Amino acid sequence: MLSLEEEVEAHALRQRGWSISAIARHLGIDRKTVRAYLNGDRVPGQRARSAPLLIEPFVEYCRIRLAEDPHLWASTLFDEIAELGFTGSYPSLTAAIRVLGLRPHCEPCHTVKGRDVATIAHPAGEETQWDWIELPDPPASWNAGKHAHLLVGALAHSGRWRGVLAPSEDFAHLVEALDAVVSRLGGVSLRWRFDRMSTVCYPATGRLLPAFSAVAKHYGVAVDICPARRGNRKGVVEKANHSAAQRWWRTLGDDATITEAQASLDRLCVKLDGRKRRRDGVATTVGGLAAAEPLRPAPTAAFPAELAESRTVSPAALVSWRGNHYSVPPGLSGAIVAVTHRLGCEVIRIVTASGAVIAVHPRALDGAGATVRDAGHVAALEKAVLAAFTTAKPCTHKTRRPPSAAALAEAARLRGQPTTDPAHKVVIDFAAYAATAARLSVAPQPDPTEDTALES
Fold this sequence. Notes:
Layout lengths: L3 H12 L4 H8 L3 H8 L20 H10 L5 H10 L6 H10 L7 H4 L16 E10 L10 E9 L5 E6 L4 H15 L5 E4 L15 H10 L2 E4 L9 H14 L9 H15 L3 E4 L2 E4 H7 L13 E7 L5 E4 L2 E4 L8 E7 L4 E5 L5 E6 L8 E2 L2 H13 L17 H11 L14 H11 L7 H8 L1
């Protein structure tokens, strides 16, 4: 590769009449290289490629994906093409996106201006930041409505984060998701930080709710509430929310179940633990920082909040809940019942709308696909099904049954034709027509008495 100065010198020597061989000996390079620069085939300062770039077979895929989603993260795109066989580096992908202009321009995003931010020190093991993220347009098979709910917890010192899907954001589901995230993070920090969640504090004042204070005591943590409209105060979890939305939710398939979605999120979180960091001049990773944080072990059992979720009884007298089926007494097909479960307990209860407990079952492992039946329910269901059987001869489906007179009359009415009452049908006697025809075939004879009267 020639520098700009060497390329200028080569052109000057050529104009003086030097041969290409002489210029090559003078500059100490190959003759073919000198000829390429003199002919304009090479650009000074740019090294010629001896082999095609690794990104070239994937350029069209990248262009299509970025045209479909201009805000797709380059790291997400890198994950996708790596699964397709790309062996290059992440910087080579970002360079190709920039040089080839693969990402479409988005004018609204370029009008956003930055603002000053301050860096807050977070000692190891001190703080975990929490936040709900509402994910739009969940797969239809989830029956989750317009949004899916993900609770994200992030260790402020190391940046490790984990998330758990929940059916709703009420108090009981918050506690259940908190416990699941804590176990995934590896322990409990000294303090928990929340925004003004209505299930944690009074939003207007920021004062802690008595119910959640019991939860904090159970886990042995102090609770901090962010000031109103200060999202940057918990910027670690906000960035985790961004990663969850862009790198996971944005590419989640429509056919994914809740269990599969949770498993894919867990895999992504483990992968992101490999992000490189440098602390005090020492190279490390997010996972290495998190492993060194002095976290306390989580309690052996979750805080005993009670979940309640509505379900519909199937015709087989079963209630579906968390990937399993539980039996109820027969005769409730289509009824709305509530499945209740106290966290830390090994059983679930099925309750009617009036509050009557109709079934108690041991809880199966979530997503196991198990069918848990009570022996009494099975016997009662079999009895009800057998009682509904009949020995009557079934209807014959090949019998000829043309439309009745009433149906024909109604059809005539619909067509606008005159109708008569079928009970008073007019019957025509052809004998009357025959007698009338016989009389008309004989010529009428004059009355002789009339002629005598006229002569007199």
